[in-house]
């Protein structure tokens, strides 16, 4: 089955403001025209749609697969009937497959259609007051910076795929032609467990896997660092104390007089 791409171009949006003598507020209306090119296997199969909207409701559209305009509402029927009777308009719409869609495919091919950006993956434990042992915790796999948007994220526990308690956020656009998604796993965590987030994306030659282990948790690292820091600090204070103590003993050594037989005693 071929790969389907869609490129949409908005031709114009016009806002019409009508002021009525008996109305205290003006009424706004918006018309919109949108041209879409749908591609299958490059330009082997191309479908062109020319769509017309009124206040965000589609009224009528041209479909190159059909070869004529189709009304979506009663309000769009007069336009569909009028345009379908005009051979020049119909021929112009049909020719858009070649002059508009296939032409723009070449223009956008490298920058949009063939563009591939590998995802970045960060696996972490959702903050919890307790260290993971046998209670339910939530692991989160943050996948971001990838293009195009199609992506598949799986969770594994000790090599076995987890499906029941897996939830996913919506797909977010970052505003720079890249996407982001967060996939979470609610699970029990035991010592010795290994959790894996696996990401499938067209930019990757093979699925990318990131492992997480309980001893890698941020809280465990923090506690371990605190413990080591305490030991080092305690040892330093102990050494300083011993040095001060030894110096104090030297300062308080009692004076001893000359031990000579010629010393005069009274």
From TrEMBL:
Gene3D superfamilies: Class II Histocompatibility Antigen, M Beta Chain, Chain B, domain 1, Immunoglobulins. Residues 1-25 form the signal peptide. Residues 119-201 form the Ig-like domain. This is MHC class II beta chain. It is a single-pass type I membrane protein. It is found in: Membrane. The lineage of its organism: Eukaryota, Metazoa, Chordata, Craniata, Vertebrata. Keywords: Adaptive immunity, Disulfide bond, Glycoprotein, Immunity, Membrane, MHC II, Signal, Transmembrane, Transmembrane helix. One of its GO terms (cellular component) is MHC class II protein complex. The keyword Ligase does not apply.
């Amino acid at each position: 089955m071929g790969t389907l791409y869609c490129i949409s171009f908005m031709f114009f949006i016009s806002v019409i403001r009508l002021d009525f003598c008996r109305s205290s507020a003006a009424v706004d209306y918006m018309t919109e025209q949108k041209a879409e090119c749908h591609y299958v296997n490059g330009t082997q199969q191309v479908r062109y749609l020319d769509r017309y909207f009124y206040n965000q409701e589609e009224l009528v559209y041209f479909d190159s697969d059909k070869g004529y305009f189709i009304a979506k509402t009663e309000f769009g029927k007069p336009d569909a009937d009028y345009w379908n009777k005009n051979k020049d308009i119909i021929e112009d719409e049909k020719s858009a497959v070649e002059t508009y869609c296939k032409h723009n495919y070449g223009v956008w091919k490298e920058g949009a259609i063939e563009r591939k950006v590998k995802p970045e993956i960060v696996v972490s434990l959702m903050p919890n007051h307790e260290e993971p042992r046998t209670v339910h915790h939530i692991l989160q796999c943050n996948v971001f910076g990838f293009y195009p948007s199609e992506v598949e994220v799986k969770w594994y526990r000790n090599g076995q795929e987890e499906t029941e308690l897996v939830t996913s956020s919506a797909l977010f656009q970052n505003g720079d032609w890249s996407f982001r998604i967060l996939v979470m796993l609610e699970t029990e965590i035991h010592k010795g467990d290994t959790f894996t987030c696996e990401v499938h994306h067209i930019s990757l030659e093979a699925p990318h896997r990131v492992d997480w282990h309980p001893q890698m948790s941020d809280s465990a690292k923090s506690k371990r660092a605190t413990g080591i820091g305490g030991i080092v600090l305690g040892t330093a204070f102990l050494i300083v104390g011993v040095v001060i103590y030894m110096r104090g003993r030297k300062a308080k050594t009692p004076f001893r007089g000359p031990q000579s037989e010629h010393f005069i005693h009274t």
